[in-house]
Amino acid sequence: MLFFYHRTKERVTTMRRLLVGNLTAAIVMGMPGCKPHGLTAAQRDKCAAQSARLLWLCEKDDAVLLARAPEESFLSYVEGVLGFRPTVYAPQEMFLNDARSVAEAALADIKLLNALTHIGAFGDSWNIAPFVQDPAVYKLAIEIGLRVQGMNKTIINNGLATQLNDKAWFQKRCHELDIPVPSSVLHRRGELEDFPVIAYAMYQRSGTIVVRHTTAAGGSGNVKIASGYTSAEAFREALEPALHLLRGGDVLIEPFYIFEATPTVLMRIVGGTPHLVAIVMREVNDRLASTGGVMPARLHPGVTLLLEQWSLRYADAIASTVVDGDVDIDWGIYHDESGDLRLLALESNCRMTGTGPIVAVRDRLYAEGPVFSWNCDSMPVEYASFVVAHADFRAQDLLWQDGEGVVIMTPPHAGRMGVAVFARSAEQRDAFRRGVNDLR
């Protein structure tokens, strides 16, 4: 079944926004007592590159705070697609090295803080919209005189923002709401001694298992251990990467399900009421890490109905706390041993997600549906710069024009870039996707 949800191009509020790309905060919140050096260089670099996606969420007169300002050519490209150029703020590099997020860096960079305080002088017409709610963003908002969208002091002090992005908390809440989840075992950070025993017991029952960080880990939070180890000693050696995860935070030990489909339901909570935004058919790697997605999702009507009902049931349960903002749920669909179709709620993100910018661009480029899209957040490329990538895509007649084509979502960096295809039919979408893949 093809599903198209109602889209609006108007602002939900007349407030202008300072969007904050504090992607590293989503990792840090799962690492109690984490110091700045607890973040790896790869995590920092990936988060800085991915934060450029927030530009696509901007509306006219919005601004965005990023860890690293994109190259001028990419900003000009964004302006050409959107019809306006968001104002971009970024701290000096020296302040990022001693900070766990771009918000912390902004607080330390006096020159930047003064510039942001100028926005605060018009605080009645601005608010801060962070990638994820965290104490540093709240402190920054107070410092420059703005309010934080969907966030208050109680949420910060009670650590609820962390809970709402924690896989274990999410699964526990789903149990209470009669929403099906994997047969997981939670193991606490640092409890290393009995971890191999517990993991091996599940391995013997289930075969292949996956160990997942309960919070975001910048793409390195899942470890899959395939079947085939015949002794506890051999299994223990294969478990070493998972032990490394456990040293950094809590983990879930789960059977590895072979999913036939992995949809994500994106919802938006406005004034305490959740609304369906999109169902995306996620594409994942062999460790269940998302690599992109396809819209609209092609699902059986009965499956779509269950996804909607269960997703909204969860969103309703947390809506009074979140107030405003995006929340999504990642699902897995499979057939059990009896041949019955099963759905499992895997995790939820109560923050900005990779789907949000895709939906935002779609809604800006198309006044009405149907629209068919595909995106890859981290496509392997060899381009040294955005200028080179843009020229290659243009030479192959792939760039978006006349209602279809490719939008470059994030510029090339460290051998990766983000792209999205939009078209009026599934056939045209797939044709553009093949054209993109031919450039790899």
Describe the 3D structure:
The protein is α+β, with helices and mostly antiparallel strands and 440 residues long. The protein has 4 domains: 16-161, no CATH class; 183-255, Dna Ligase, domain 1; 260-349, D-amino Acid Aminotransferase, Chain A, domain 1, CATH 3.30.470.20; 370-440, Alpha-Beta Plaits (2-Layer Sandwich). The chain contains 17 helices and 17 strands. It has helices at 23-28, 41-50, 72-82, 93-96, 102-108, 110-120, 135-144, 153-157, 160-163, 167-176, 195-206, 232-238, 240-248, 301-322, 355-365, 386-395, 426-438; strands at 16-20, 63-65, 87-89, 126-130, 147-148, 185-187, 209-213, 222-225, 251-255, 263-270, 273-284, 290-295, 325-335, 341-349, 372-380, 405-413, 416-423. Strand 7 and strand 8 form a beta hairpin. Residues 1-12 have low confidence and may be disordered.
Offer a few descriptive terms:
440 residues; alpha+beta; Dna Ligase, domain 1; D-amino Acid Aminotransferase, Chain A, domain 1; 4 domains; 5-stranded parallel β-sheet; 17 helices; 24% strand; globular; disordered N terminus
List the helices and strands and how they pair.
Elements: E1 16-20, H1 23-28, H2 41-50, E2 63-65, H3 72-82, E3 87-89, H4 93-96, H5 102-108, H6 110-120, E4 126-130, H7 135-144, E5 147-148, H8 153-157, H9 160-163, H10 167-176, E6 185-187, H11 195-206, E7 209-213, E8 222-225, H12 232-238, H13 240-248, E9 251-255, E10 263-270, E11 273-284, E12 290-295, H14 301-322, E13 325-335, E14 341-349, H15 355-365, E15 372-380, H16 386-395, E16 405-413, E17 416-423, H17 426-438
Parallel strand pairs: 1-2, 1-4, 2-3, 4-5
Antiparallel strand pairs: 6-9, 7-8, 7-9, 10-11, 10-13, 11-12, 12-15, 13-14, 15-17, 16-17
